Amino acid sequence: MGQVSLLLWSWIETTRDFARGRLWGPFLAFTLVQWAAILLLTQFDRPLFSPILAPLLKMAAGDAVLHYPIFYLALPTIFTELGLILDVFVGVWFIGAAYLLFWQADHPAEPRRGVFGRATGSYGKLVGARLPVVILLLAMLFVLPRLVFGTGPGPTGSAQRFVRYGSFLGGVVLEGLFLYAPLAILVERRSIGGALKRSFGLACRMPVATLGAVLIPSLVQLPIAAVFRRVERMVTNMSPEIVAWALALAVLVYTVATFFVVGSSARLFRIRTEGTGA
Asked: Rounded CA gap, 183 and 269, in Å?
């Protein structure tokens, strides 16, 4: 099957699953966790949370972040940093369960339970396989631009756009290379190293389908990022609190995009492993 046809088939199958509520469970649960994180951040001045959150916020964004409305100007960046932590230590569990649900959906003979238990049993491996992606993304977003452009005020104009879109495409490639590692861990019971090797091998065997499975849903990042680059206008022309609501909406959009990434990659993994016996 040609890679483009394979990709289209995986999208069609995933779209058909869109109305299957059971498959949405892990995605919506992780969405609630992220919404709770946004809500918690906005309550940093409450006596119950201030002793813990205030020092962390100052460490992340400086003393001024504790003042209104500066907090809301910094909120997207703070939540992005927190989101990376949630991704590695919480998201891997939910996404691992989601992968298993898609796998079970294509294998009617398998028991329809135990996905969270299996994800829990492989939690350490899932974290170990996800951690290199986040470390490399951080290096690409923060270290590489400093090496290229120095430690001055940062790139401007065309250089800034190069960094912005180059990091986006680089992130897509990274995600593609590591895309199949959770399934290799959960379905094939591989070690972290074995799962990464398996994922790299599958990604290189079907690069167009793999990159397409990540790239197309990830395009939602571009308009969302454009909105948050204008966070000062949001705070000035509307209400500062609208930033938190916009973040909550962005999380929901990312949830839908992740559903398609997980669903399509699970189908690609199945067709290339079971279909070829590889």
From this structure: 8
